[in-house]
Specification:
The chain is an alpha/beta fold and 283 residues long. It is built from 10 helices and 11 strands. It starts with a strand and ends with a helix.
Length: 283
């Protein structure tokens, strides 16, 4: 029996509608500042789509673009200015940055209240502690929404996360723990990966390795979330061997159309939430 398809596009559309309604009721629009450095084609597409999404729901966009050789001083100055700009409620520094820039240092300069990606040390620490005030990175937040929408019961479930990036793997593991799942966190040094994966009720793969997760690694009835987005000769390819795994899993996300739309939708949610908090704090 083929797996249920988890439709990220449909859920993201419903979330955008809710955001648009709340934005329309505000006296002034939330503001999202995007910073793009270099000429990475994927990053250019992502930022453009995020700006289009913002416009669709009434969020004001402040875009800043730099060439490959941008200096760290330029970015330090811009982030400082955006931190102090009352029109800007959320700041997104598109990653990855060119190699000559100190990514961690620049992320740390973002005002945690405007850290829409949830990557500053303060927000990452709050998330690790399970604190409600943490701003959660967009992709992990989207994964949790997808699992909720498909009716996954995380309380007591065994969740396996493959990948330990600061954008997805690490924050997602923290969210799953907060939901009372038992989490096994796997990565490139994990031994017996296939055996561990076969024990999972929920499997999330976020490593950027095409079709890494095969049918032999999946327990029948598991829920599989594919965060991978790899360029193939005929389009995007996920980290999951979709055709084979969909014959075994209970539910699975497609690539494209699964996690990607949810990442963009949760950026809007985080931007609106930041505007809400900052407006309240300034009253």
């Amino acid at each position: 029996m083929a797996a249920r398809l988890i439709d990220g596009k449909a859920l993201a559309a419903r979330i955008r509608e809710r955001v648009a309604v709340e934005v329309s009721g505000r006296s002034s629009p939330p503001g999202l500042a995007t910073i793009l450095v270099g000429e990475d084609p994927a990053s250019e597409v992502y930022v453009r789509m995020k700006r289009e999404d913002s416009a669709q729901v009434g969020i004001k966009s402040f875009h800043h673009e730099f060439g490959e050789e941008a200096s760290e001083a330029e970015l330090v100055g811009l982030i400082g200015a955006l931190n102090g700009d009352e029109r800007v409620h959320a700041i997104l520094l598109q990653l990855p940055l060119p190699a000559h820039l100190n990514q961690d240092a620049l992320i740390s300069l973002i005002d945690p209240a405007k850290d829409v990606d949830g990557l500053t040390p303060l927000n990452a620490g709050l998330l690790t502690q399970g604190r409600e005030e943490a701003i959660v990175p967009c992709t992990p937040a989207g994964v949790i929404e997808l699992l909720s929408d498909v009716g996954a019961s995380l309380d007591g479930a065994h969740a396996v996360v493959i990948g330990r990036s600061i954008l997805v793997g690490k924050p997602l593991a923290a969210l799953l723990l907060k939901a009372n799942a038992t989490v096994t966190h796997c990565h490139s040094h994990t031994r017996e990966l296939a055996a561990i994966c076969r024990e999972a009720d929920v499997l999330v793969v976020a490593v950027g390795s095409p079709r890494l997760l095969t049918a032999e690694m999946v327990r029948p009835g598991a829920i599989v979330i594919d965060v991978g987005s790899n360029r193939g000769p005929s389009g995007l390819i996920g980290d999951v061997d979709f055709d084979a795994v969909s014959e075994i899993a209970a539910a699975i996300t497609p690539v494209p159309g699964g996690v990607g739309p949810m990442t963009r939708a949760m950026l809007l949610v985080n931007t609106l939430a930041a505007a809400r908090r900052l407006t309240t704090a300034n009253q």
